[in-house]
C-alpha cells in the first residue's frame, strides 16, 4: 500500500515553546495508527497540524498528492489561498475530544452541513447519505434530535458520522473517548473498530491501550513533542524499547 | 426551621428536643392561620396616596387637557413619529453593520485591524452624542465640498441633510457600542465550533455565517433590543439640527401657540407608545432565542 500521509521533520512552536520537534511519520493507505503519550506531549498539536488547524513552523506534511497549506511551483512552496486550504481540510475528517457538534442544528443537519455547504451536494442526496451514516453508527432514530438531547457517546457517534459524510481519505481522532463516562466508551470504540475494519485510514490519539492493541496496525509513542518510538502494535506494547515508553505504559496500565 | 418533624424515637417516646411543629408544617387535622402581613397593607396605602397626590396635581395643575387631545393626532406629530421610527431603524442598521465590522476587526489576528477597531470604539464612546451630532451636521465647515475624483463633486451642505447628519452621528456612535456586544457574542461561542466548522472544510466566512453568528445571536440580540429602545430616545437630540422627529413636531406647535406643557405631554405619550411596542416585540424575540438555547445548555453540561 502506498503512503497516504507523509510527515517530514515537522516543527511547531507556540511562542518560544516547541510543541513539535522534528516529527516524522508515514501512514499507509488503510492503516490504523494510534498515538499514545503523556499529556502535553504534542499529540493534539500533531493532529491539528495535519488538518491545518495550526500552521507548522518547519518541515512538510503531505496527505495524498498534496502538501498541506502549500503548493509546490518552480521549486518553491507557495502558501495556498484560504479557499484551497479549506478544500484540503474537507478531505480530512476530524473527531474531537469534546465532540464539537453544532448545537443549533439537529443531528441530521450536523451531518449534511459539510456536503451541502462545502461540496454543494444536492439536499436529497446528502440526506440519504446522512441516513445511511446514522444507521452505520446506530443512531438512525435520532436524526431529528438536537445534540443537547443526546448522551456523550451518542454525540461522539454523530461527530464521527459528520466526519465520514465528507468522504475523507483520512480521519483524525483526538482522544475521542476521554470526555465520556466509562459506560459510554464502549459504544464509540465499537463504531471505530467497525471503521478500522472497513479499510479507512485512521490516526487515533487515545489512552485506550486495549483498543490500540486490537485495532491499530502500528502504535506511535510521543513525548515532549517528539516521536520517541513507533512500531507494530503488539510488539511495541509487549516489548517497548525505550525506557520512557515502558514508564508510560506501566503508568496507564496501573 | 420549624419545617421537619423528627421521627419518634425507637422506644416510641417523642423526641423531647424536637421543636413544636410550627404553622409551616401543619398537621393534617389543623387548619392554617397565616400571619397578617401589615407591611404590605401599609406600603400599598402609601403608594396609593402618593399616586393620588400626583394625579390630582396634574388634574388641577395648569394643563389644558383638551389641547393635549387636540394635538395628539395632528399631522406634525404623526410625521414626527414616522421620522423618529425611520431614523431609529436606519441608525440601528448602520450601527449593527459597523459594529459587526469593528467586532470582527477587534477579534482578528492583525494588529493594525485590532488597533483601528479599538480607536474607533474609543473615540465614538468618549464624545457626547450631542457633540457628535453637531460635528456631523456642520461637516461643511470642515469640508465644504465632497469630492471623489471622477465620481462626485457636491457641496457638503447638499449631502448632509438633517436626516443624513443624524443618521451618521447616531449610526456611527451606535456601532461603537454594538461592536462590544457583538464581540462578546462571538467570544461566547466555543473555539471548538470554529475548529469543527473548519475541519469539515468551511472557509472562515462560511464558518462565521453558518456556525458562529447563529449561536452568537443568543448573546447579541437582547442587548441590541435594549439599545434600539435607547435609540428611540436618542433620536430626540436630532431636533436640535431641525430633523422633524417627535420633539421637533411638539416644538413647532408650541412655538406657535405657546402650549408648551400640553405638547410635551403629547410627545411623552407617543414615546411611551413606541417604546411599549418595541418592548413587546423584544420580549418575543428573546423568548424565541431562549427556546433554541434549551438543548445547548444540556450539551455544555455533558
Ligand atoms: N494554542 C496554544 N498556545 C500555546 N501553547 C499551546 C497551544 N496548544 C498547545 N500548546 C502547548 O503545546 C503542548 C502540547 O499540547 P498538546 O498537543 O495539546 O498535547 P497533548 O494533546 O499531547 O496533551 C502543551 O504544552 C500545550 O500547553
Ligand atoms: Mg490533547
> What is the helix/strand order of chain A?
EEEHEEEEHEHHHEHEHEEHH
Whole-number average pLDDT of chain A?
A: 95
Number of domains of chain B: 1
The H-level CATH homologous superfamily of chain B, spelled out, is MetI-like
Which ligands are bound?
A: adenosine-5'-diphosphate, magnesium ion
What would you call the shape of chain B?
flat
The fraction of residues in strands of chain A falls at 25-35%
Total beta-strand segments of chain A: 12
Say what the CATH topology of chain B is.
MetI-like fold
Strand order of the largest sheet of chain A: 8-9-10-3-11-12
Instruction: Give the helix tally of chain B.
Output: 12
Radius of gyration of chain B: 29 Å
Fraction in helix of chain A = 25-40%
Largest sheet of chain B: 2 strands, antiparallel
Oligomer state of the chains in this structure: heterodimer
Low-confidence stretches of chain A: none
Coarse structural class of chain A: alpha/beta
- End-to-end Cα distance of chain B, whole Å, is 35 Å
Please explain how this structure is put together:
The complex is a heterodimer of chains A (254) and B (302). By secondary structure, chain A is of the alpha/beta class. Chain A has helices at residues 43-50, 82-90, 107-119, 123-136, 152-164, 182-197, 209-215, 233-238, 243-253, and strands at residues 3-14, 17-28, 32-36, 58-63, 66-67, 70-73, 76-79, 92-95, 170-174, 202-205, 218-223, 226-232. Chain A has a domain at 102-167. Chain A is built from nine helices and twelve strands. In chain A, the strands form three sheets. A six-stranded mixed beta sheet of chain A has the order 8-9-10-3-11-12, with helices on both faces. In chain A, strands 2-1-4-5 form a four-stranded antiparallel beta sheet, covered by helices on one side. In chain A, strands 6-7 form a two-stranded antiparallel ribbon. By secondary structure, chain B is an all-alpha fold. Chain B has one domain (75-290): Orthogonal Bundle (MetI-like fold). Chain B has a two-stranded antiparallel sheet with strand order 1-2. Chain B starts with 37 loop residues before the first helix and ends with a helix. The chains are: A alpha/beta (254), B mainly alpha (302). Chain A binds chain B through residues 48, 51, 53, 82-83, 86-87, 89-94, 96, 98, 100-104, 113-114, 117-119, 146-149, 151-152, 155, 159, 162-163, 165-166, and chain B through 190, 192-193, 195-204, 206, 210-211, 214-215, 292, 294-299, 302. The structure holds adenosine-5'-diphosphate and magnesium ion. Adenosine-5'-diphosphate binds at residues 14, 17, 19, 37, 39-45 of chain A.
Amino acid at each position: 500500500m502506498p503512503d497516504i500521509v507523509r510527515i517530514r521533520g515537522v516543527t511547531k512552536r507556540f511562542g518560544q515553546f516547541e510543541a513539535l520537534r522534528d516529527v516524522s511519520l508515514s501512514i499507509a493507505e488503510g492503516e490504523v495508527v494510534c498515538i499514545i503519550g503523556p499529556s502535553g506531549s504534542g499529540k493534539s498539536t500533531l493532529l491539528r497540524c495535519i488538518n491545518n488547524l495550526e500552521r507548522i513552523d518547519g518541515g512538510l506534511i503531505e496527505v495524498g498528492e498534496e502538501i498541506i497549506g502549500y503548493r509546490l511551483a518552480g521549486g518553491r512552496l507557495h502558501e495556498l489561498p484560504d479557499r484551497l486550504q479549506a478544500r484540503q481540510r474537507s478531505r480530512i475528517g476530524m473527531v474531537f475530544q469534546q465532540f464539537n457538534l453544532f448545537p443549533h442544528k439537529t443531528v441530521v443537519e450536523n451531518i449534511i452541513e459539510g456536503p451541502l455547504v462545502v461540496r454543494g451536494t444536492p439536499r436529497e442526496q446528502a440526506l440519504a447519505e446522512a441516513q445511511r451514516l446514522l444507521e452505520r453508527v446506530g443512531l438512525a432514530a435520532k436524526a431529528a434530535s438536537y445534540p443537547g438531547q443526546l448522551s456523550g457517546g451518542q454525540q461522539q457517534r454523530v461527530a464521527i458520522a459528520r466526519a465520514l459524510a465528507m468522504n475523507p481519505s483520512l480521519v483524525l481522532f483526538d482522544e475521542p473517548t476521554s470526555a465520556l463516562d466509562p459506560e459510554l466508551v464502549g459504544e464509540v470504540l465499537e463504531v471505530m473498530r467497525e471503521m478500522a475494519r472497513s479499510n479507512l485510514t485512521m490516526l487515533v490519539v487515545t489512552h485506550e491501550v486495549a483498543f490500540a492493541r486490537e485495532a491499530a496496525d502500528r502504535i506511535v509513542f510521543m513525548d515532549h513533542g517528539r516521536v520517541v518510538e513507533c512500531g507494530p502494535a503488539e510488539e511495541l506494547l509487549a516489548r517497548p524499547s525505550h525506557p520512557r515508553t515502558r514508564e508510560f505504559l506501566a503508568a496507564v496500565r496501573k | 426551621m420549624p419545617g421537619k418533624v423528627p421521627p419518634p424515637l425507637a422506644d416510641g417516646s417523642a423526641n423531647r428536643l424536637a421543636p413544636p411543629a410550627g404553622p409551616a408544617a401543619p398537621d393534617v387535622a389543623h387548619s392554617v392561620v397565616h400571619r397578617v402581613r401589615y407591611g404590605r397593607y401599609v406600603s400599598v396605602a402609601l403608594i396609593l396616596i402618593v399616586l393620588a397626590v400626583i394625579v390630582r396635581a396634574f388634574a388641577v395643575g395648569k394643563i389644558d387637557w383638551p389641547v393635549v387631545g387636540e394635538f395628539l393626532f395632528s399631522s406634525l406629530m404623526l410625521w414626527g413619529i414616522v421620522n423618529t421610527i425611520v431614523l431609529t431603524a436606519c441608525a440601528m442598521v448602520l450601527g449593527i453593520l459597523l459594529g459587526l465590522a469593528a467586532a470582527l476587526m477587534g477579534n482578528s489576528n492583525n494588529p493594525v485591524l485590532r488597533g483601528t477597531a479599538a480607536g474607533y470604539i474609543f473615540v465614538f464612546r468618549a464624545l457626547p452624542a450631542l457633540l457628535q451630532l453637531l460635528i456631523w451636521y456642520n461637516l461643511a465647515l470642515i469640508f465644504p465640498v465632497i469630492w471623489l475624483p471622477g465620481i462626485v463633486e457636491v457641496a457638503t451642505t447638499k449631502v448632509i441633510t438633517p436626516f443624513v447628519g443624524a443618521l451618521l452621528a447616531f449610526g456611527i456612535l451606535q456601532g461603537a457600542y454594538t461592536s462590544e456586544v457583538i464581540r462578546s457574542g462571538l467570544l461566547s461561542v466555543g473555539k471548538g465550533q470554529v475548529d469543527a466548522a473548519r475541519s469539515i472544510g468551511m472557509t472562515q466566512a462560511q464558518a462565521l455565517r453558518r456556525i458562529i453568528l447563529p449561536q452568537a445571536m443568543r448573546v447579541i440580540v437582547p442587548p441590541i433590543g435594549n439599545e434600539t429602545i435607547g435609540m428611540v430616545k436618542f433620536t430626540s437630540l436630532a431636533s436640535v439640527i431641525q430633523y422633524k422627529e417627535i420633539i421637533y413636531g411638539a416644538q413647532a406647535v408650541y412655538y406657535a401657540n405657546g402650549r408648551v406643557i400640553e405638547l410635551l405631554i403629547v410627545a411623552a405619550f407617543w414615546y411611551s407608545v413606541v417604546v411599549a411596542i418595541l418592548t413587546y416585540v423584544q420580549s418575543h424575540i428573546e423568548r424565541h432565542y431562549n427556546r433554541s438555547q434549551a438543548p445547548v445548555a444540556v450539551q455544555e453540561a455533558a
